[in-house]
């Protein structure tokens, strides 16, 4: 990708073929910093506005999930900006799920025994730093930390920020404003006030909080190349490995269960009952400290349509499609948004208006589909993984994938290890389910028929 800046032919309404745009990106998280980098590589003048201070110099970074599972879609987006290898160099491969039952027995279910694909556990802060550092090479990116968007005029591309520490108002304008400001996006809030923008959000009844299994004598306390899961029907715990040989543990439960745990004694009783094998790994003292440090966090799933407003505004990542985190796809889908958007920017004949319009049209079904899949996987992780039927289906899927890899791609593989559109992953699973149920029905009918004919055959023989 050349850094040469193309000549502008834009008329401000996005109605002519494009030259370099002045683009404001709201939110310097993972998707915003990737979008900034991708646009800067194409010669646009990028202004990245981030509410928080620069995480590269901040002493304490507060926020969600310390580590994340990176899969194919995120890797592809990182490869496109030349950062995949740098990120994978420090990531920890997770080859499958390690299930911990209530007695402490462990069972491994590999993600992909046929082609050995795996997820990668990456540090959120590290990934954000890599993306921000890569942006430093581009003089056409200007970073504005501690700028909180509080108003945007979607028709004119005019913005107002509150700048820390005094909350003084700073005004700015841009040809295009891209909201990458997360699940509670201010950009989206402004967009949904306009007619024609559909929006829905769903808080699930479960919250989450993060605990830690520290390293012991400089080593991991559990096998590191797995995503550990403690499925317990109505709730569950998962753990992902970190570079420093600790695990970040995420406990997900209905708020009403969290509410029953108010004292140290209640907490320890609860853990000894449901997660006994994890207690010595976390350590009782640390468990108590981390559990009561912060209240459990809410999880929200957001769908909206369209993702753009005219030729001036667009939302990406969680701002457009926040989802519950149980498919490990929120970030991957947000990064894939960038891949999609850039493929449209690379079509020279499209105007900005057309790019934004096509982005919505190409993306919304798949974004809605992954929000639905993420909800489904919550049930799968906490409940279905324990069931024999789940393991039988997993086994059957694996065999069929091994024999017919281009025809039978299991749902999890298609979501995590391919770039198949999410809606197609669902359609794929539907015909697989239908085929299997037809085969099952036919096999049952055949068995009954054989049984009946054998019975009457025997009867006939003995009669005659
Ligand atoms: C517990 C948990 C575990 C997860 N695990 C995974 C996983 O394993 N794999 C995966 O793919 N995804 C995972 N996700 C989802 C993933 O974290 C998100 O999808 C991803 O962070 C979205 O990136 P984003 O840049 O769109 O939003 P964010 O990461 O939320 O970044 C938004 C940025 O915008 C800034 N901002 C907000 N408001 C303003 C404003 N008004 N003005 C200026 N800046 C603003 C914020 O400070 C922030 O820096 C998980 C999520 C959670 C909660």
Secondary-structure topology with pairs:
Layout: E1 22-26, H1 30-41, E2 45-49, E3 67-70, H2 72-80, H3 84-90, E4 92-94, E5 96-100, E6 106-110, E7 119-123, H4 124-135, E8 141-144, E9 147-153, E10 158-163, E11 168-173, E12 176-179, H5 186-191, E13 198-213, E14 226-232, E15 235-241, E16 247-254, H6 255-258, H7 264-274, H8 279-282, H9 284-291, E17 297-305, E18 308-309, E19 313-315, H10 318-321, H11 330-345, H12 352-382, H13 388-403, H14 411-417, H15 422-463
Parallel strand pairs: 1-2, 1-12, 2-8, 5-14, 12-19
Antiparallel strand pairs: 3-7, 4-7, 5-6, 9-10, 10-11, 13-16, 13-17, 14-15, 15-16, 18-19
The protein binds flavin-adenine dinucleotide.
Flavin-adenine dinucleotide (FAD) is lined by residues 26-32, 49-52, 64-65, 68-69, 148-149, 180-182, 186, 208, 250, 317-319, 325, 328-332, 334.
